[in-house]
Design goal:
The complex is a heterodimer of chains A (343) and B (278).
Chain A: E1 4-13, E2 16-26, E3 31-35, H1 42-49, E4 57-62, E5 65-66, H2 71-77, E6 78-81, H3 93-103, H4 108-121, H5 137-149, E7 155-159, H6 167-184, E8 187-192, H7 195-201, E9 204-209, E10 212-217, H8 219-226, E11 229-234, H9 240-252, E12 261-263, E13 267-272, H10 275-288, E14 296-299, H11 303-311, H12 315-320
Chain B: H1 29-45, H2 48-76, H3 82-96, H4 101-110, H5 112-117, H6 123-151, H7 161-188, H8 191-195, H9 201-206, H10 219-227, H11 229-242, H12 246-277
Helix pairs in contact in B: 1-6, 2-3, 3-6, 3-7, 3-11, 4-7, 6-7, 7-11, 7-12, 11-12
């Protein structure tokens, strides 16, 4: 049985189709990374799968229980930390966790033990009796995570758990996510805008854009789909045209294999097989053409490259607008190559 | 991955067979309501300044009305104790100041409503618990004003039935009024709109015999006052102070109950909409 299953999910908000037929399946114990720019439909899908929102059509299930027909059963099985950690600032951390526990039917010693356990797990023991209004953003996220774990859920939905956090807090959340999987075998549905986060944590990744899943697979398989090494070439703006012409000429003459040439903020990215050999060909060719260029680097494809290929480069815009509620508004197409100039 | 993985937080490494395998269990509606009410009362107690501000305007009107009209009312209109005549108005004014939807709309805007909605608790308990929290606030306001009235010499016709009856009537009206702002909070999710519900209290309160007895009124004003349910609530409240009249008290409770039934109906509609829309 799958931990999470979605079949042809569609959700419309008036005229806007935020989710346009999404199907996915997550195995028990898997960390499933769900990537996409703002407005792509990530949070809408999370809200449907966690029973907060009904789909316009299609179905979703958690551990075999339909999210629309058996919402209460699903709520007992899942833990959810939403993108905006909605916490009551007037309560202390302990009061919030106790209330949350009571609503899950925990009481007495079990409730006390669980509060102590999850508080320790997220490293908030010293602050748990302080009012939440005194917590930092990172502490609030950790408290939110703790509240999602109180009733020992089998499936955990984490909606952008590290967005807006400093690197230290982010690393701490990453450690906890790894620990949850390694110690307890939890199934984790992780939405994120940070590609390195998905690369670091997820067993499988899906990329959603404009309400549709456009790529799905293990990070390694997705990178392999790119089928090439990546050469990043820095050129000044005034040399940009000459560089493009020289590279196109090298490709046309067969000196460089034909591969995707993509404009970036600093110059160009060239996708070529056999990078170590072809980087030398590229440098010599540019030299011969009299093109002035800066740093040249060779790397393996990253999830960034997969994402950019899948979405046409909308990720940079997503990073700049981390607070927007996606899925609740019309997806706004960004010009291709916001992060890297389109070739 | 292990298909037999235990729930998160479990340290025993085993999962019992069968479904479900988490610690979550049905708590029951009563337990849910008690938990949410406790949180609502805690929130009220943690902001005593709001409690004090909500009392300032009713006390101000009370004092000004007595100062401006007290002697005239007693000498020209035959009202034996104008402070007692005005005390129910102040108490009902304070009860309407609770704006029970404020806490709820802040939960909705801040995302805490979603967090609570993700639990298996009865969703109606999220609203009912808030209403009970508001009843606690109404009780608090009423007791403060009753003590204030006592200190300036207001006495009830019956020292036990009088205050208890007035408190019961005020709670019934207050919870109905709190339901209005809760309905607006659920329907709109807007902090501003929810805070504005206080405005509807003004026609309800001032198209009443708040300053004069009804038999001294004439024309359109008298007609408007006669169809306002608040008129009967106020007259019943005064009956506890000036001489118990069962018929008047009965009409007052009926008017408060009908008002509350109407506002609860609106709240139920708004609640269903909120749950359906997510």
């Amino acid at each position: 049985m799958s931990a999470i299953q979605a079949t042809d999910l569609v959700r419309r908000f008036g005229e806007v189709e935020a989710v346009r037929g999404v199907s996915l399946e997550v195995a028990e114990g898997e960390i499933y990374g769900f990537l996409g720019p703002n407005g792509a439909g990530k949070s809408t899908i999370v809200r449907i799968l966690t029973t907060l929102l009904q789909p316009t059509s299609g179905s979703g299930a958690v551990l075999g229980h339909d999210v629309t027909r058996e919402p209460t059963t699903v709520r007992r099985l899942i833990g959810v930390a939403l993108q905006e950690a909605g916490l009551d600032p007037k309560q202390t951390g302990r009061e919030l966790l106790s209330l949350q526990g009571k609503l899950y039917g925990l009481k007495g010693k079990v409730l006390g033990d669980q509060v102590a356990e999850v508080t320790e797990l997220v490293g908030l023991t010293d602050a748990i009796d302080r009012r939440i209004q005194t917590y930092s953003g990172g502490m609030k996220r950790r408290l939110d995570l703790a509240s999602a774990l109180l009733h020992r859920p089998r499936v955990l939905f984490l909606d952008e758990p590290t967005t807006g956090l400093d690197p230290l807090s982010r690393a701490l959340i990453w450690d906890r996510i790894r620990e949850l999987r390694e110690r307890f075998g939890a199934t984790i549905f992780l939405t994120t805008q940070y590609l390195e986060e998905a690369d670091e944590l997820a067993d499988r990744v899906a990329i959603i854009d404009h309400g549709l899943i456009v790529r799905q697979g293990t990070p390694a398989a997705l990178k392999a789909e790119i089928g090439a090494d990546v050469i990043d070439l820095a050129v000044e703006e005034r040399e940009s045209g000459a560089a493009r012409a020289a590279i196109t000429e090298l490709q046309a003459s067969g000196q460089l294999p034909g591969g995707e040439l993509r404009g970036t903020r600093d110059g160009y990215t060239l996708f070529v097989p056999d990078g170590p050999q072809n980087i030398a060909v590229l440098i010599r060719g540019l030299d011969r053409a009299g093109v002035r260029f800066g740093a040249v680097s060779l790397s393996r494809p990253t999830l960034d490259d997969v994402f950019l290929a899948a979405t046409g480069g909308r990720m940079a815009a997503a990073h700049e607008d981390t607070q927007a509620e996606d899925g609740q508004r019309e997806p706004e197409p960004e010009p291709a190559g916001t992060g890297r100039r389109a070739s | 991955m292990s298909a037999a993985a235990p729930g998160i937080g479990s340290t025993d490494g085993r999962r019992p067979t069968g479904e479900p395998q988490t610690l979550a269990a049905p708590a029951g509606l009563l337990s849910d309501v008690v938990a949410i009410t406790g949180r609502a009362i805690r929130g009220i107690l943690r902001e005593p300044e709001l409690f004090i501000f909500a009392l300032i305007i009713p006390v101000f009107f009370f004092v000004v009305q007595i100062g401006a009209l007290g002697k005239v009312a007693e000498q020209q209109l035959g009202i034996s104790d104008y402070a007692a005549f005005q005390l129910p108005i102040s108490i009902l004014f304070a009860a309407a100041s609770t704006s029970g939807g404020n806490a709820l709309v802040l939960d909705i805007a801040g995302g805490y409503w979603d967090k609570l909605s993700l639990t298996p608790a009865h969703r109606s308990s999220l609203v009912v618990g808030n209403l009970f929290g508001e009843m606690f606030a109404v009780l608090g306001y009423s007791l403060v004003l009753l003590v204030f009235g006592f200190l300036i010499g207001v006495r009830f016709d019956s020292p036990v039935i009088g205050p208890v009856g007035l408190l019961a009537l005020t709670l019934l009206f207050g919870i109905g009024f709190a339901a209005v702002s809760i309905a607006v909070a659920l329907a709109t999710g807007s902090v501003r709109a929810t805070q504005s519900t206080f405005i509807i209290f003004f026609p309800l309160l001032f198209l009443t015999p708040s300053a004069l007895p009804r038999d001294l009124m004439t024309g359109w004003f008298e007609k408007a006052v006669s169809i306002n349910p608040m008129t009967y609530v106020i007259e019943a409240a005064r009956s506890f102070l000036f001489g118990f009249d069962g018929a008047v008290v009965g009409k007052g409770f009926l008017a408060a109950a009908l008002f509350s039934a109407l506002t609860f109906g609106l709240t139920a509609l708004a609640f269903r909409r909120r749950v359906r829309m997510g």
